[in-house]
Amino acid sequence: SYKFISSKRLEEVKIFFPDSKPVKEEPLSQARLFPRSLEEGLGFEYAMFHNQVENRTVCILQGGPYLQGIPGFLHGGAIATMIDSTVGMCAVLTGGAVMTANLNINFRRPIPLCSVVVINSQLDKIEGRKLFVSCNVQSLDEKTLYSEATSLFVKLDPK
């Protein structure tokens, strides 16, 4: 999936940002989804699942050795990336084309490198063009809380 470039998604972006000028075709053909940009097993290894009825998205994540912050633990920026990706997916699948307006993260405990964690996100409310999504990052057995986050997404307006 890291090499997948959706021409449909590119056209959607052009609707909301008609004045934007994408890079030339050659670099675009080499573009990768950021969390999928490292070799398999060395960076972000994850799978996401969405429940449309409950407006929930769950991500199973294993952070590889290239994501180390302090020795033996995932870098906070890597955790933030996956939180943003998960709550963002929840917002996109619920509200359509959206953009992160705000992301607040409380880091509770460091995540050991190469451990598997679960990111549980849910849509909390919608107010006009605003979508409020929250999540937590826990161990598989749900006994350890690593992080909690709240986020605000804004539906893009093509006007």
From TrEMBL:
Its main location: membrane. It is found in: Cell projection, Ruffle membrane; Cytoplasm; Mitochondrion inner membrane; Mitochondrion intermembrane space. It comes from the Eukaryota. Residues 72-144 form the Thioesterase domain. Keywords: Apoptosis, Cell membrane, Cell projection, Cytoplasm, Fatty acid metabolism, Hydrolase, Lipid metabolism, Membrane, Mitochondrion, Mitochondrion inner membrane, Transit peptide. Pfam families: 4HBT. It is a peripheral membrane protein. It is an enzyme of class 3 (hydrolase). SUPFAM superfamilies: Thioesterase/thiol ester dehydrase-isomerase (SSF54637). PANTHER family: ACYL-COENZYME A THIOESTERASE THEM4 (PTHR12418:SF19). This is Acyl-coenzyme A thioesterase THEM4. The lineage of its organism: Eukaryota, Metazoa, Chordata, Craniata, Vertebrata.
